[in-house]
Write a structure and sequence with these properties.
Number of strands: 13
Largest sheet: 9 strands, mixed
Radius of gyration: 21 Å
Helix content: 25-40%
Number of helices: 11
Length: 453
């Protein structure tokens, strides 16, 4: 049984070892993968033995949030260190600003002396990494899960000219759940349907609650292509959930091919291995499919980090607050021994991985959203150690406050209770300060959406 460590545990654990040689770094990313959709996270509806193998050797961060729950913006944050709103990248089809095209994570790692390879989905903004602008990477394999792991493995075993290597392997799945919901052929997987009584049951938070933000139902109605589930029966949702978990198992098998190579070459002692996702999926919670919304199933993403020769912390689970969009870039540069640019607003995870008893990484993290593909509603989620505050710009119950210790399923909106007024105002104040510091100046500042009474 894995132990959960708090900030008061193992305070005298001793100093971590600093290695003279820069480690290899392998960065594995899935698409539309919720943090709770792993067997190592206790989910009995899915089996992820290969991702679990990474967790057995690393530190799993339970409270990791994406920068914005949509592929393009989330990945833009990962590879630039900026929140999407700070660089105008809140939609999938927006290209990187010209000023950032030679300042991405790949460029900085190349300058740090790494041999960089990219395999799989890019989506910043083209689906595959463009050959004309490789952003510091060798393009190993385009946007196609078939052959992705094999291409990644070929790069691992190739001659790197005495340099450490930085490999990014980005799988599309379980994103194929989008095609499944639309009744389309799945591009990168084959799954078999099963009888309803063999499908996972509905989640406990399946029903829409009386004080949920009503703007979400309006947004869902704006596009049948994105949200074809409006007329779903409970049985339909169970089949959806079955398909989603089977797609995760499919991609877990592909991830396992890379883990096998790491095992066979005994790379754990000189390689940082990171597993994460760009955002999650609704899974039928609150009767939501797809992404963009700020529910936990969508905004809370998996993050597992293995540091070289860090066996003392193998299998630990951290409650540190992480934004994988802006925290991963300084983390990777930190392990590479490279300078972290001043524009990076995130914090390195290195100490939190090598000394997980010191969990206080961030006091809070923010996940932002824009329903750019439908009605354009903006929203923000601010997560503190014990609460999550959600604000949408319009609609009834556009403010929501949830107790993350006792209500991770977000079924009781505490913003409507007077006894939580102090907590509500505290989170409003934190979000206001974050907006003032991080969002571009405007004649109509976003702080105007935060209630003042």
């Amino acid at each position: 049984m894995r132990k959960r460590f708090t900030s008061i545990g193992l305070m005298l654990a001793g100093c971590f070892q600093i290695h003279a040689a820069a480690p290899n770094i392998i960065y594995i990313v899935t698409d539309q993968h919720s943090a709770n959709a792993l067997s190592c996270a206790g989910n009995e509806n899915v089996a992820t033995p290969n991702i679990d193998r990474i967790a057995e050797r690393g530190v799993r961060f339970d409270n990791t949030y994406c920068a914005l729950p949509l592929s393009g913006p989330s990945r833009a944050a990962m590879f630039t260190g900026y929140m999407p709103s700070a660089i105008g990248m809140q939609e999938n089809e927006t290209p990187l600003p010209d000023s950032l095209r030679t300042r991405t994570l790949g460029n900085l790692m190349e300058e740090a002396g790494y041999d960089n390879g990219y395999s799989g989905k890019w989506h910043v903004n083209t689906n595959s990494l463009p050959d004309s602008i490789a952003f510091g990477f060798k393009n190993l394999h385009g946007h196609n899960d078939y052959g992705l792991a094999e291409a990644a493995n070929e790069f691992i075993v190739s001659d790197h000219g005495g340099k450490p290597f930085f490999l990014v392997a980005c799988f599309d799945n379980p994103h194929n759940i989008c095609e499944y919901a639309r009744g389309q052929k799945l591009p990168f997987a084959t799954i078999s349907d099963v009888p309803t009584d063999s499908c996972p049951n509905l989640p406990k938070n399946f029903l829409i609650q009386p004080y949920d933000a009503d703007i979400l139902r309006w947004e869902r109605e704006q596009s049948y292509r994105l949200y074809p589930t409006k007329g779903y029966t409970p049985d339909d949702w169970r089949h959806y959930r079955n398909a989603y978990f089977r797609l995760i198992e499919h991609v877990d098998t592909e991830v396992g091919k890379i883990v096998d190579t790491i095992d066979s070459l005994n790379l754990w002692d000189n390689t940082v291995v990171i597993f994460t996702s760009d955002h999650g999926d609704g899974q039928g919670a609150h009767q939501w499919n797809q992404k963009t919304v700020l529910w936990e199933e969508v905004a809370n993403v998996p993050l597992i980090v293995c540091a070289p020769k860090n066996k003392k912390n193998a299998g630990k689970v951290s409650e540190a607050l992480v934004n994988n969009g802006i925290d991963l870039m300084p983390s990777i540069l930190d392990w590479a021994g490279a300078d972290v640019p001043q524009w990076c607003k995130g914090r390195s995870l290195r100490y939190a991985v090598e000394q997980p008893e010191k969990e206080s990484l961030n006091d809070f993290v923010v996940c932002e959203t824009v329903f750019a593909q439908t009605g354009g509603t903006r929203g923000w989620a601010l997560r503190t150690p014990h609460f999550k505050y959600v604000l949408y710009e319009a609609g009834t119950n556009r403010e929501m406050l949830f107790d993350m210790d006792n209500d991770r399923l977000e079924m009781t909106n505490l913003a409507v209770e007077s006894k939580y007024r102090t907590e509500l105002e505290h989170h409003r104040a934190l979000l206001r300060k974050w907006m003032e510091k991080n969002l571009p100046s405007s004649p109509y500042p976003h702080t105007r959406f935060i209630p003042v009474n």
